[in-house]
């Protein structure tokens, strides 16, 4: 029986859902804990003791799924328009478009109409925008692993993208290698719950008097490659969509996330926060890339790409012409991405963070709000107006 069920320790469950998916007797089902995370619950009367849940748990079997990277790159998508709407260097889009052009399917995280993050299946390149971009919430994968297996058995080329524990959970659930499966794991800082995200998004809705129809955790349109959030909204009672680029509550969510205080308990013991990787390809932002590759134009973002398997190497051989691709070194990448070396540290404030967020959201949000918000807003607004005047923006860039 999986360690989480035996010990009732939330740090032992990453919520990937592999155990629930593999149980043919339906002895395991999901429930949502008080922090908003899905966890398995055992019906002992239905359990036959087969041990399959043990064998597919990524927290118990991480070592069986990891590979040492073969190649490391700084990568920039050659398609400038796609690059601008990506969070970093647009590497995901190149891989996903290649898979779709070869009659494959892509699985990744997307918001639904209620701003709930779920893994979905995409067959049309026009819908890739739903999957593109960083999303700092744990996505719901319920039912997805079985759908992936069905596609694989039908001979369909499948590209699955997720945080490392999700990719590991899928691979362990499948229990065999499939030549038609490609996977990408994302270097992960940790995952807040949907319930925690809702605290901030509901406060934003209420304060602004809007319906939220879209959300970008990383929007390059004004601040470039950075951590600026934006939201697409409608005024209550109106159908007109408009964007809010800079908001105190949205920024507070990013601050809370970056503090590490709203991660799942298992994230602080993550066995995948290591240079050895679970996906065929690993993707991340290549923060600090200018220290090592001074000639790169980093204005619109750079992806860190780790090629971990022969399958990943073969894939990059087919798509390398779609990138500005610069060979790099793993130690450089790890120096700028701490979660390639160790899990996010558990802050002292973690014990009270979720309790306060759910009992007094206003006080909690204020705790993570920028104290110099007005000055930052003025700077952001000025930069936005400068950037909307192309000749002035280009002149300022040349003067830097």
Mean pLDDT: 91
Q: Count of DSSP helices? A: 17
- Number of β-strand runs: 13
Question: Biggest sheet, open or closed, and with what strands and sense?
Answer: 8 strands, mixed
Major sheet: arrangement of strands: 5-4-6-7-11-12-3-13
Shape: globular
Strand content: 15-25%
Kindly, what is the distance between the CA atoms of the first and last residues, rounded to a whole number of angstroms?
A: 60 Å
SSE string, helices as H and strands as E: HHEEHHEHHEEHEHEHEHEEHEEHEHHHHH
- Which structural class is indicated by helix and strand composition? alpha+beta
Q: Radius of gyration in whole Å, from Cα? A: 21 Å
Helical percentage: 25-40%
Q: Low-confidence stretches at least 5 residues in length (pLDDT < 50)? A: none
Describe it:
The chain is an alpha+beta fold and 400 residues long. It is built from 17 helices and 13 strands. The chain has helices at 3-7, 18-22, 52-56, 58-61, 80-84, 91-101, 144-153, 164-174, 194-208, 220-223, 248-259, 310-319, 330-336, 350-359, 361-367, 373-387, 390-399; strands spanning 28-32, 38-42, 71-77, 105-111, 117-122, 158-162, 181-186, 210-216, 230-235, 241-244, 281-285, 303-307, 323-327. An eight-stranded mixed sheet has the order 5-4-6-7-11-12-3-13, sandwiched between helices. It has a three-stranded antiparallel sheet with strand order 8-9-10, covered by helices on one side. Strand 6, helix 8 and strand 7 form a beta-alpha-beta unit. Helix 9 runs antiparallel to helix 11 and helix 14 packs across helix 15 (361-367). The radius of gyration is 21 Å and the shape is globular. The model has no long low-confidence stretch (mean pLDDT 91).
